[in-house]
Write a structure and sequence with these properties.
Strand order of the largest sheet: 1-11-10-9-12-13
CATH class of the largest domain: Alpha Beta
Shape: globular
Distance between the termini: 92 Å
Oligomer: single chain
CATH topology of the largest domain: Rossmann fold
Low-confidence stretches: none
CATH superfamily of the largest domain: Nitrogenase molybdenum iron protein domain
CATH architecture of the largest domain: 3-Layer(aba) Sandwich
Number of strands: 14
Structural class: alpha/beta
Helix content: 40-55%
Radius of gyration: 26 Å
Number of helices: 17
Number of domains: 4
Length: about 450
């Protein structure tokens, strides 16, 4: 992890704007894509081909790509609830307790976050909170299992009141199935990749068409979500995980390094970023990162992430460090500084804020309460983490009385005539004049 002491260079490194350019596939992925499709294709070209095929052939296309891409030749795409319940009953007791502990915290946070419908009788307006009717949740799988993502996505959806929550995940194991039962999901399909996104967006004979698709995934999943937007809503486009740790002289180097590596081990493309308040602090933490790397089970992945995207920046103060963090807009911002809570209000751009030594981001991944599905790639400038709001529609309600109509109607009529919309104006003026907007037709003779 290189150390950058020049503040202008640091600003250049950390200032970014959200963008979603065509990703360049690594050589192995490009070769595999060519083998699957019989010709070299970009990631977007491959996804578009899959989506078009799923839209045309439905379940047959889903099964075909599952076999060709993942080697999964199952015929039954849906996993019945009985299997979820059996998996839950057979899990070790400590894992069941962990799932229920996490679920309880996630549910309590979601319930506390739930907005309420309201109406102002005097003003004549209000707002209804209406849940989306059917939501599709994508949960990554394959080389790793993420039962925590099932909890973090499905529980907020059910608290929001979504009647039908549909989960898609490739080759789910017992812990993932059990998590679906604990979270209260309604249906679960063993489908992954772009074909899962296509099935949820367009519907098949087996998979119901949803209204919104949420959840993280690999580059093909993200491209597929982008491509189906408009046919359905999406929550966002998620890239590799990223953590920015701000540390001053009070920070424990061992803990700061552990927090950086906890994200680095996710993905070779992960971004572990340190902003320290002095060169000495940066040097101690970087040395500790190197020391801890040697003992990690996922050392190769974490080392690649540190080498590729890891950087330690030296800032002049905690305030300057936070300004750099706002420019970077990280998925996770960790404050390992003296009086950390006093700096929270200065943070403008972050997916989630983790305040102090007792609030590690890793707890946020599992049991803190808020969902760990958070904006990446600088999109924290405008996007929020997944929560009950993700699954709600906000419907304004206008219910005026006669006095309010009389009071504000003339202004509306004036504006309508200014815009040349005389029918708009007459719809108001007829009411103000006490006349019916509709004249009954004369009886035919």
């Amino acid at each position: 992890m290189r150390i950058v002491t020049d503040i202008e260079e640091a600003r250049r490194l950390l200032t970014r704007r959200p963008a979603y350019a065509e990703p360049v596939l690594p050589p192995a992925a490009a070769k595999r894509t060519e083998a699957i499709f019989g010709e070299p294709l970009s990631a977007t070209e491959a996804v578009r081909r899959i989506l078009a095929d799923v839209r045309e052939r439905g379940d047959d296309a889903v099964r075909d790509y599952a076999k060709r891409i993942d080697g999964d030749d199952r015929r039954e795409l849906e996993i019945p609830r009985e299997e979820w319940e059996r998996a839950l009953s057979e899990l070790p007791a400590d894992l069941v307790d962990a799932l229920r502990t996490a679920a309880g915290r996630i549910r309590a946070y979601a319930e506390a976050s739930m907005p309420r419908s309201w109406h102002d009788e005097d003003a004549g307006y209000g707002q209804r909170m209406v849940p989306i009717e059917r939501v599709g949740l994508y949960v990554p799988g394959g080389s790793a299992a993420y039962p925590s993502t099932v909890l973090m996505s499905a529980i907020p959806a059910k608290v929001a009141g979504v009647p039908e929550v549909v989960v898609c995940t490739p080759d789910p194991g017992p812990a993932t199935l059990a998590a679906a039962a604990v979270a209260g999901a309604d249906r679960l399909f063993a489908i992954g990749g772009a074909q899962a996104i296509g099935a949820l967006a367009y519907g098949t004979a087996t998979v119901p068409q949803v209204d919104k698709i949420c959840g993280p995934g690999n580059v093909f999943v993200s491209i597929a979500k982008r491509e189906v937007y408009g046919a359905v809503d999406i929550d966002g486009l998620y890239g590799p995980t990223e953590t920015l740790v701000i540390a001053d002289e009070t920070a424990d180097p061992v803990i700061a390094a552990a927090d950086l590596l906890a994200q680095a081990e996710h993905d070779e493309l992960a971004s572990p970023v340190l902003v320290a308040t002095s060169a000495a602090v940066a040097e101690r933490i970087v040395a500790e990162v190197d020391r801890q790397l040697a003992g990690l089970d996922r050392r190769a992945i974490a080392s690649a992430a540190v080498e590729r995207n890891g950087v330690a920046v030296v800032a002049g103060s905690v305030g300057e460090a936070i300004e750099l963090a706002n420019a970077f807009a990280p998925e996770h911002l960790c404050l390992l500084v003296r009086d950390a809570a006093s700096y929270v209000d200065a943070v403008r751009n972050a997916g989630g804020i983790f305040v102090g030594e007792h609030s590690p981001e890793v707890l946020g991944d599992y049991v803190a309460g808020p969902s760990h599905v958070m904006p990446t790639g600088g999109t924290a400038r405008f996007a929020s983490s997944l929560g009950v709001h993700t699954f709600l529609r906000y419907q304004p309600v206008v219910r005026l009385n006669e006095a309010t109509l009389t009071q504000i109607g003339p202004a509306a009529a004036t504006l309508a005539r200014t815009e040349g919309l005389t029918a708009h104006a007459r719809a108001i003026e007829l009411r103000l004049e006490g006349k019916s907007a509709l004249t009954p037709p004369e009886e035919s003779r």
